[in-house]
Request: fold
Amino acid sequence: MKCTIEYDGTHFLGFQVQPKGRTVQGEIEKAIKKLHKGEDIRIQPSGRTDAGVHAHGQVIHFDSPLAIPSERWMMALNTLFPDDIVITEVEIVDENFHARYDVVKKEYRYFLLNQKNRNVFRKDHTYYYPYPINLDQILEGAAYLLGTHDFTSFCSTKSDKENKIRTIEEIEIWKDGNEIIFRFVGNGFLYNMVRIIVGTLLKVGQGKLAPDDIKLILEKRDRQAAGKTAPAHGLHLWRVWYEE
Reply:
């Protein structure tokens, strides 16, 4: 069973189940367990998200012995989910499908509120950043990140991935009112990669780094060379692609 889900990450300790604390995986598996009359069913996601990170198009899969039509699966699970998780699409797929290993590419978006005053209604979903920003400089710097690179400089030192080479296919950055939206599409993203990229590009936008410093930071392959990690609550997993 393949499910596309949305969740507000504000009140979760992250996606992955933990011994203590509320997680997205824990809430989903709790609901599935009820449908299976107490049987534990483990789900597999396209990837994990950290505490505070949101998802509009996270994908999971799980195996079930129940013969239920896809539309009834969605209705049944959404009835059991808390109000910060919802399934938007359900598809019965081949048993060889894997939500994580079959991913072709992902899209993340990062939302920045760039105005003088805070917005109490956007505080959990947009990073409040009241400083002047040169968007043209940011776009110039972001261009160096397109293509295939070793992104060690833009990866948390806590990452357990030995291979830090990834490909970013698309980067778009635009202003919508007082929000600045960063859009990244790539074949995969390292731990904290998008948030570190955003934090570094903001230094470019403030004139603390030159646009072509991004190229030098990539070449150094040193996390200390890049900027701060932008806060989790501005990050949204937007979409996950699979082969048709």
